[in-house]
Amino acid sequence: QEEENAETIAEIKALMEEVDTAKSPAELLATYAGRYEILLKNLKKMKAKQENEAEARRLVGEVKTDKTADELLEIYSGKEALLVENLNELKNAEGDNADMAFAVKTLVVETKAPKAADELLAIYSGREEMLLKNLRRMKAKQEEEKEKALLAAKNAPKPPLPPSPTASTATASTAASGGSSSFKKKKDYNDVIRERQMEQRRAEGLSTSTSIKKVRDYNDLIKEKKLEKQRREGSNSARKEIKDGRVLGLRDDFEGSGSFGPIFIRASSNGG
Fold this sequence. Notes:
Helices cover 72% and strands 3% of the residues. The chain contains nine helices and two strands, in the order αααααααααββ. Strands 1-2 form a two-stranded antiparallel sheet.
């Protein structure tokens, strides 16, 4: 296994001296570690492509075509070997239909026709101009559809870009700010409600205390009136008692008591 890898690596290094690669041999070998056969196969394809491109450019300079080497290489991209084959046929062909045959083969590649160029040429033998006309019409239709697709894609609404970390942070901050603002508004509203409720309770309490005070004042008035009535009744009773007892006079002393003070002296029954 090690000997096979060593031979493969040696062949890879030799090929890389013949082809142009964007990476150095060391970088490619590190990238394809354990897959050297795949790397070798890709390098061989690259070498063949570059050789066919060089040959095509050389042949284009030797034959007459209505397209440049770059245009033909773009049409035959990935099929450079076929381009070289068609150019060689054009170079070695005899007769007036050689240029037309090459044009047909190029259009078949360009339009990706469902049939091969040789098959179409056999079907349209003697009518190559009609075949060429149909292929050019097909190409024009394809280009028109391509332009419409490009225009539709250009006018189509663009999908929203994924938010960047900064935008996400800003959005989150804005959302948090908006949330805190909403919370603050809600809190302020609740505070206003509480203040109004407290004011209402204070008003109700003041009204209640005022009512209680009024009730108390009314009761005091009732009591005063009762007391005044009682005093009047007592005074009248005393007057009545004095009248009924026929109070004769007042004495400043009370016999035998040693006390002084006004007293009522009732008259005896015999008038003494």
